[in-house]
Give the backbone structure.
Amino acid sequence: MIWSPDADQPPPPDTQSRRGRKPAPIADTAGPSHRAWLEPVRGFLLSSGLTLNDLVDRSGYSKTRISELLRGNGYYPAWEITFSVIRALGLPVQPMRRLWTAAAREAQKEPGWIEHCIQQVALQPEPPPLAHKAFTEAVTDAYTAYARAFLLTDHRARWVVTETFDILWLCWSEAATSENIRRYAWLLLRERVMARAHRQHDGHPDLRAAVFSTAEIHDASPGNFVAISELVDLFDAISRLPHDQMDVAVMHYLCDMPPADIPDVLGLSPALAHAVDHHARATLERLLQPSLRE
């Protein structure tokens, strides 16, 4: 994934000598949609080797306004200044505009304000890279099924998958040169889903409501509360697995994906996916054992 200026590790060696003062952390008030574009933009700035002064010179905006934008602090930034910053960094505009618009709605900006901001900047058509288009078309159904398990509705699931694909386009130069683009994209999807997943009181994602969308429940006889209870326990246990184990279990039990297809979607080798599945089954058996004894 792209290096974040809030991470503990240092930036790439070739940029460290040129880097100015480390940007302040993103403000706590920035929501998930705002962070969706702000984090990669900050990462690109750090990896570019540009200083804040360089960005000020290239964008034409003051250091104060650029600093506020990079922190997600104060008022949500207008599209004009956001556009100037991403053009200074050489980032694609079309996915960024969609991400900016979603975050503006999250910040409760009026539709008229959003439309006015967008109209101030004339844009040329900008199709995604062909490889990006082919990749996203290949994984859309699987990604949507995974997102639906956590977000429950088709609308929310499709929206998060679209957001993921826009961030992937924004980061395509890095993603395309990564060792495993499928793994890169899957980790990005998981991050975006988990940012919006329903949570239990202990912080684990809540998969229990997904029980009622399974084929087992639809095929069960009316009033079969035992089957429902067993599935609720299973899905609750799945949500407590380590991330990779949870992903494999969700794709298998909730999304009904054939085991042979799961490694390719998750960006894992078949051998590693098999090992993860083995550990997941063992962990689920241990987690469910108390309820079986009862």
Summary: The longest helix spans residues 270-293. Residues 1-18 have pLDDT under 50 and may be disordered. DSSP finds 16 helices and no strands in the chain.
